[in-house]
Amino acid sequence: MAESNGPMGNRQETGPAENSERIPEEPGKQYSGSVQWLSPSNIALVKYWGKRENQIPENPSISITLSRSHTLTLLRYSPARKGRGRLAGFLFNGQEQPAFSGRIESYLGLVRTLFPFLDEYEIFIESTNSFPHSSGIASSASSMSALSLCLLSMERILSGASPDDEAFYRKASYAARIGSGSASRSVYPGYVLWGSTPGIASSSDEFAVPVNEMVHEVFSSMHDSILIVDEGPKAVSSSTGHSMMTDNPWSPARYSQACENIESILRILNAGDLDEFVKLVEWEALTLHSLMLNSRNGYILLKPGTIQIIDKVRLFRRETSIPVAFTLDAGPNVHLIYSSLFREKVEKFIREELLVHCTRGKWIDDLIGEGPVQITGK
Ligand code: DP6
Fold this sequence. Notes:
alpha+beta; 8 helices; binds ligand DP6; four-stranded antiparallel sheet; 26% strand
């Protein structure tokens, strides 16, 4: 990710997902094959918070797939004796990361029945993120979707079969879900729904589905300006947060509210109603953090800067009537979601009033994207 100095600090920028971006093959090392995918992160509008066994969500969620915050993953493989398949190495940003490779290893164990060929191959994985590891952007959605797409491509190459795109991406989404729930949504472009939803026949708790054809064109060019209030590691991980929903007395109310909000957001997206969109997206963001607050052993991930930005966004909206919404992940950084129709005014507002609350003036200038891109190994 290139950085350039804006008038009020560092602006974090990345180029759009491009085929020219790739991890170079190591000269001199022999592998029988390799595949490489670039997959973006996503931002949820209606949040997934709470899950059952096997990564089954307690409620449906819907997100926008991003463009510039992505993971690039190269998977190389060589035959091993039957039963001797293993992860032979994992590099993140060119370096060994034992914590990450442990997570990849257990993921490969979980998906072994989905990809039985893993028993017979040594695989070596290299990943890089377009966004700094410490930027506070959740990387599990982009990294787990990139890895599952690599496994699907490897399967396609080894079997010689060419499943249609629908079956390919459905299995990729299913496999990504096993690694991280939100990753199931990152295998598709634009607006993506994960979780069984009445009225959407193809929807499922096991994989995500794109819903772009239902979305009004006013929502087709949305920006996500990510304001980095704090880039330190989160005090409480998302996994712990999900698990704290099991004995949260508000969980049943949340799950039924989320189902109603899914119905509402689908109606709003279809009607092209930007004002209702803002109300619903902000309600979801604050609900997510209220669930952290009112869990047993409740916790707060919001920082003073988060609150100051939220206050200013609401004031800006009152004064200008520009429909810009804030949303939050499980962290303190603020995502501003708005249509490109309002880009100039919102960018000025960000630079003049919001970057002062960001760590070293950092923000990531992202937008709705076209989904993952296969770089090599077709
Ligand atoms: C607040 O997908 O990171 O971003 O399934 O345990 O990997 P795991 O959790 P994860 O949770 C995402 C939570 C969220 C909301 C969302 O993306 O829907």
